[in-house]
Amino acid sequence: MTVADGELETAAEMSAAVHEGEVSPSDLVERSVRRAEAWQATTNAFCSLWGDEAVDVAGSVAPGGARPSGLPIAVKDLYDVAGRETTGCCRLYAGRVAERDAPTIGRVRAAGLVMIGKTNQHELALGGTNLYSSCGRTGNPWDPGRMTGGSSGGSAAAVAAGVVPWALGSDTGGSIRIPASFCGTFGLKPTTGRIPIDGLLPLAPTMDTPGPIAATAGDLAALYRILARTPEPAGSRSGPYRLALVGGYYRDHVHPDVVRVVEQVAATFEALGLVTEEVEGDGIDDARATWRRVCYPEFVDAHPALAGRWDGVLDPAIRSAVQEGAARSPQERADAAVRRAEIERWFARRLEDADALLVPTTGYPAPLVDQREFDLGDAGRIDLDRVGPGWFTCPVNLANLPAVSLPAGSSEGMPVGVSLVGRPGDEEVLLALARSWEEASGYRARRG
Known about the structure:
The chain is α/β, with parallel strands linked by helices. The chain has helices at residues 11-19, 25-43, 51-59, 103-110, 153-160, 177-183, 217-228, 256-271, 287-302, 316-327, 330-350, 394-398, 427-441, and strands at 46-49, 72-76, 114-119, 166-170, 186-189, 210-214, 242-246, 275-279, 356-360, 373-375, 381-383, 403-411, 414-422. The strands form 2 sheets. It has an 11-stranded mixed sheet, with helices on both faces. The chain has a two-stranded antiparallel sheet with strand order 10-11. The chain starts with 10 loop residues before the first helix and ends in a 7-residue tail after the last helix.
């Protein structure tokens, strides 16, 4: 049968229809492939598309099987998929064919999901814009002349365009949450170490975190549980959750529209009976610099082939990162680790009396692809090279915490996200809060 647009758009709806025999996996995967092809000229979301093969795989899925078997999914080009190239969208790694699946891909296969292709990303995941890629930049489905954010920009664009209900990304400094914010999707950065990073091209192994991007909170939770191999929790918590609205660092460099959206989210939670309290947020102004001092040396260690091979990369920032990382002395690395631990304790103190922190995901909506400054109104103009898209996301990676970005509002006609940051291992708390917000706000996923 032909699946009409507007029908069976969420993974939950698709799963139920497949299970009841109302639609076949092949029907869903064929529609997904058609949409990918139709959107590709606009978004360039995919670096490789496996249309015919994906449909063949879908055809082998037994009808009426376990849920969510047979549903389409897209995979970021950092993940090893047996027999496929894993390049991180870098020319240096062209022809690097994976011999085996990454464990996360094994879990995707075990759940019966059908991969339709690899998604475009910022080169080697070292960037929050997706402007640099051996496959060309990605275009935001809401406005192709604007950034998708990165580095999981192709995955977020594919979800936002309705090509797939969910996709795999990775997050080392915000690479799931930034494109989720700019493209208007849900995105979860799990607790560092919760999901294995084996079989992923590394950026900074002590911060690298695989995770899901999805169009709905329910689908986000379902994909997270597949990746983490954890069941849906039984029952619900008694007593109200407590949220902390963080000031200081998380109020500087923020567009007034984003401030408004954060306040709207807080009001929605308050109407549900949650307790919100403002907390002081000064003391981590050096978070971005600290993240670089941790990330860049690890990146150098993880990619020794980059040394002197500038002909193999596109992003000029990568050369700078390699040079900066290689120049760090053992003492400087140790000092960065000490500061990282201090930032981790900074978050822990603010989570002592709160179940989650409520903060902007990004301080502004998706910039134009050639934009170098952003006017934040009363907050002044900022240099996007200095206050980049990862300004508010990277501190969470230093602290190893889980965080979920909600597609909570808009500015300049573009989506903006708001994040909930939780304690280590509290993914289910964040997912429950995301679902509560989605239901209470009346949010419905819209295509770009």
